[in-house]
């Protein structure tokens, strides 16, 4: 299985943003609330792979239910690297993996499967169907069972995946719940990914829905402090900061080794819009200006 981040620190002097942003965004355009049609999502992802920000976009996420539409667009001359998402649980993994592996033009890079309180079954599915050099993730739930779920994942092919948002208020963990997850992963030395809700860099309240969104910059800084030994309360305080200038200052203060270490834990996150988080990073000065604007 692959581990850590795909950041290339050899290019640090030319592109100092790489250790922090390389492979950060998984393209989840097919998923809510974006719900992009396959005929739009695949061409858009192919364009991302040719743009100046290509190093920051990891893989194309496809749900089991979306596979028939994806197969129709598969191009053996331009293979698409995909991560299979199996929200229906372990039983759906095997047939979907075989479908991808048998389709010219599709390359399986990973599997994400819902744990649904049955971590053992999810792990068994990964051990049975996860090809070599691919990553496996099991979605764990916030709350009282979190530690037990992570303990059951330790030493297996599965890494934890944690939901940070969705289409309803209850899908968003509060600061303490997200801090507990980050801290628990650090204690167990487990790389993790998160999904949903991280549209912007900074913690905020959505003016339309009223949902409390976490910021991906908050999460990155909380992960850094977890690596440095901070306790959950301190991590929750970082996740609650809404001052973009303060967060940006803290991010600029991270050394290259610190950036690399935190990304060794926070491997990526799924976003239905690559453009939104990218624009925030540019606006806050976290990324260098695109080549055509220099």
SSE inventory with pairings:
Elements: H1 18-21, E1 25-27, H2 38-48, E2 57-63, H3 67-71, E3 80-86, H4 93-101, E4 106-114, H5 119-129, E5 135-140, H6 146-153, E6 158-163, H7 175-187, E7 192-195, E8 204-205, E9 212-213, H8 216-227, H9 232-239, H10 244-252, H11 256-265, E10 266-271, H12 275-283
Parallel strand pairs: 1-2, 1-10, 2-3, 3-4, 4-5, 5-6, 6-7, 7-10
Antiparallel strand pairs: 8-9
Helix pairs in contact: 7-8, 7-9, 8-9, 8-11
Write up this protein.
- The chain is of the alpha/beta class and 294 residues long.
- The chain has helices spanning 18-21, 38-48, 67-71, 93-101, 119-129, 146-153, 175-187, 216-227, 232-239, 244-252, 256-265, 275-283; strands spanning 25-27, 57-63, 80-86, 106-114, 135-140, 158-163, 192-195, 204-205, 212-213, 266-271.
- It has 12 helices and 10 strands.
- An 8-stranded parallel beta barrel has the order 1-2-3-4-5-6-7-10, surrounded by 6 helices. The chain has a two-stranded antiparallel ribbon with strand order 8-9.
- Helix 3 (67-71) links the parallel strand 2 (57-63) and strand 3.
- The chain is globular and about 50 Å long.
- Residues 1-13 have low confidence and may be disordered.
What's this model, at a glance?
With 294 residues, the protein is α/β, with parallel strands linked by helices.
Shape: globular
- In whole angstroms, the N-to-C terminal distance is 39 Å
The succession of helices and strands, N to C, reads HEHEHEHEHEHEHEEEHHHHEH
Q: How many helices?
A: 12
Query: What is the radius of gyration?
Result: 18 Å
Chain-averaged pLDDT: 92
Query: What percentage of the residues does DSSP assign to strands (E)?
Result: 15-25%
How would you write the strand order of the largest sheet? Answer: 1-2-3-4-5-6-7-10
Structural class: alpha/beta
Q: What is the total tally of β strands? A: 10
pLDDT under 50 segments (min length 5)?
1-13
